[in-house]
Amino acid sequence: MSVASGDLTQNESLSNGDCDTDFDFSKLQDKPRHLNLERQRSFDERSLAEASPRFSSRLENGQRQIDLESIFSPSKRSSFNTPRSQNGFEPHPMFIEAWESLRKTMVYFRGQPVGTIAALDNSDEKLNYDQVFVRDFVPSGLAFLMNGEPEIVKNFLLKTLRLQSWEKRIDRFQLGEGVMPASFKVLHDPVRNTETLMADFGESAIGRVAPIDSGFWWIILLRAYTKSTGDASLAEMPECQKGMRLILALCLSEGFDTFPTLLCADGCSMIDRRMGVYGYPIEIQALFFMALRCALLLLKQDAQGKELIERIGKRLHALSFHMRSYFWLDMKHLNDIYRYKTEEYSHTAVNKFNVMPDSLPEWVFDFMPTQGGYFLGNVGPSNMDFRWFCLGNCVAILSSLATPEQSTAIMDLIESRWDELVGDMPVKVCYPAIESHDWRIITGCDPKNTRWSYHNGGSWPVLLWLVTAACIKVGRPQIARRAIEVAELRLAKDGWPEYYDGKNGRYIGKQARKHQTWSIAGYLVAKMMLEDPSHLGMIALEEDKQMKTTIKRSSSWTC
Ligand code: GLC
Question: Ligand 1 center to residue 342 CA distance, Å?
């Protein structure tokens, strides 16, 4: 844990007569200021695109797709500041409760809101749930943006940017300048009446792994802020431009890599414990792609920016080709792998990574629907992780890393494997769980990650916002509506747990925190997006026209 000391550059400490505690509860409001109240049944069983033809265009296959640019610009907000729904329906009581709970998690520094704590459950102080996690704040930030309250998001972005410039060390090793913290905390000294920030860049985390996802989420949130407020001045600040350049320098640096994907240690993202997600995990690759695309929109075309923009363009081109070609799995590709020859050498090799057909797990043959597909969990030398990961697949849709056909296929898979992936509580973090010998070898006998628990096939309500956004983008909001209805049966009654356990997610997680902030915020964001799909624009990107040619070429991956 890096604690600010006397050092001026790292010192955020200051006398503050206003604050007696870490969190100033007096600043909390009872009600959201600009509730976009739920319009019950606003979309019913119709698809969003059908319901909103002015926001959509017809695809070749006759389906409608959402036109993101036309649905969202700050001047076109539909009901952004409307305190009541136009049709006068009262919101779901859970929605009001969620807003009240979210406000209680707000963290203040120098009297300004700077984030939300991970969980308002103080049952175990040893754990770090009293911190503001960068990844956890994203759904909170989006909820505030959607409710017309950008201030906390702006403060969060600026505060974490200051933390980025700290010197980070693990023992005697210094981390890269651009690394963003996993989390931070406001410490209050009641004697000196000072507030100090304390940040963790991985040096206190279990496994001592730096969070690769933090920097990507930071860029994605900066773009969401800019898109939602129409205020480009924050992103244009020299500090923000530099912050982005530092993050990008870390992941665009040249080395021994033969692939455009990013090589990662286990536990460097949402799944922050050993779970066999080292190598090239889909979560990081999809976030990497999205962050690169957001950076392209935010970087200034000045001397430093120009060179970077060129490098980003090249990387995006290579990354989309690689992901769409080698990470994609559907019935046809599965059959191809099943029939692979091995030990092929030279450029003519079909089985480029020398994947052994014997390494195909049995479950994948049943899991794969005739219609549908998904991005694999990981692809590397003689290694394919066939597990389905929710976050990576949803971000692939939102960033348009997935082609329109692939996005539709991911939705088809969710629909046809509903019991497995959604079940009694949306949504599985990954599927399936690893058990027995595999569990011992892959997790190192982790008692927190036993089968169908926590990161090992547990169900995480926070993922609801990502699934909802992806559903809306693909023009199938009815899938999201169904998932939200499932969550509404239990989530609030159970006290907003962090995760659920069991094959169908029927049990509150063994060690799950209650009042987990991102479970609350994830629900709010999902509801607000369904209520007003124009919010999707801040978190989704349309397909880059230049990349379309790559898709065509990569559509047959074995050639
Ligand atoms: C757990 C999760 C991680 C999350 C943190 C705070 O460690 O694995 O993704 O950021 O809790 O909620």
Answer: 39
